[in-house]
Design a protein that fits this description.
Layout lengths: L2 H39 L17 H7 L2 H32 L6 H13 L2 H12 L5 H8 L14 H25 L4 H9 L4 H12 L1 H14 L5 H6 L11 H11 L3 H30 L3
Helix pairs in contact: 1-13, 2-13, 3-7, 3-10, 4-7, 7-10, 10-13, 12-13
């Protein structure tokens, strides 16, 4: 290889590293280093002034697996994700299909659907707190018109988590609708015209053409919805604080409680690493299996 070729190769390598360096620096500072530091902290005991933290390996993880509250939180989060993810995606798709059709006041409809998304999380939670208040809330006022008794929606283990689920679906559906609406507008009009010429019904066109072409966006929304299902904390502070009897406690609130209420940062770090592990498995499934099928590779 000539000196000129080596110089050109070196120049391209430097140019490539310069392009990568901003992302590499940001990822190192805000992703890789915090993850490694959290993993290291999860290997130590809870330190006090008299008894400094000591290396204990995986005992914090064993403590979590032996803690009944941990399994209650896991069950709550699985149930919460199993309801909110498909339901919010289905409602978002339905709203997008309607908002993309030829209806009057289309702009108003889209704005109305998207409005809950722009509300701050705390403001939305306070709004729904007014709805759920026993005796005075909107839901009880409506129920009283039909002779129904007052219900403490947030104070009963049977209804507390469902109340959180309703707030989440209401808040996220409009956000996901925007992505579906953008994807719908990329579908060529020629496909609709061709299906009309073939005599296909609206349902056949939606099932055979629209839904398959929306699959990449559906995968993207699904992954984001899964991530959102493990990072809810704002609503819990306002509505239930994880109660009653841990019936509505979710994983991120449990991590906050361990770290800042009980000042047990090693167990909070262990919980964080378990969440990162689960999200990493979901990402791996997305990139190595689902993504290939979605894009027909």
């Amino acid at each position: 290889m000539s000196e000129l070729a080596k110089l050109e190769r070196r120049r391209r390598a430097i140019y490539g590293w310069l392009l990568l360096s901003p992302a590499a620096i940001l990822l190192s500072l805000f992703a890789f280093y915090p993850s490694i530091a959290t993993l290291w902290e999860s290997m130590f005991s809870r330190g006090t002034r008299r008894h400094p933290a000591a290396f204990i390996g995986g005992e914090n993880y064993n403590d979590l697996f032996a803690d009944p509250t941990f399994w209650i939180v896991v069950k709550n989060n699985l149930f919460y994700a199993g309801i909110t993810v498909p339901l919010s995606m289905f409602i978002a798709l339905s709203m997008a299909l309607w908002a993309n059709s030829k209806i009057p006041a289309k702009g108003f409809v889209r704005t109305a659907y998207f409005t809950p998304t722009v509300l701050p999380m705390i403001a939305a939670a306070n709004l729904w707190l007014f709805f759920y208040t026993p005796g005075l809330g909107v839901l009880d006022q409506i129920g009283a018109l039909f002779g129904l008794p007052s219900v403490n929606w947030l104070g009963q283990p049977e209804t507390a988590l469902w109340a959180i689920i309703i707030v989440t679906v209401w808040k996220e559906s409009g956000f996901f609708m925007i992505f579906y609406l953008a994807a719908l507008q990329t579908i060529p009009v020629d496909l609709r015209e061709a299906s009309d010429l073939e005599g296909a019904s609206r349902w056949t066109y939606t099932r055979r053409i629209v839904l398959p072409m929306l699959m990449p966006m559906t995968l993207f929304i699904g992954v984001n919805a899964m991530i959102n299902s493990v990072k809810l904390i704002d609503h819990l502070f306002i509505l239930t604080k994880g109660g009653p009897s841990d019936a509505s406690k979710l994983i991120l609130y449990y991590i906050w409680e361990q770290a800042f209420a009980f000042f047990d940062s090693p167990h909070a770090a262990a919980l964080t690493m378990l969440v990162l592990l689960v999200l990493g498995v979901v990402a791996a499934i997305q990139f190595f299996y689902i993504d290939r099928r979605t894009h027909y590779q």
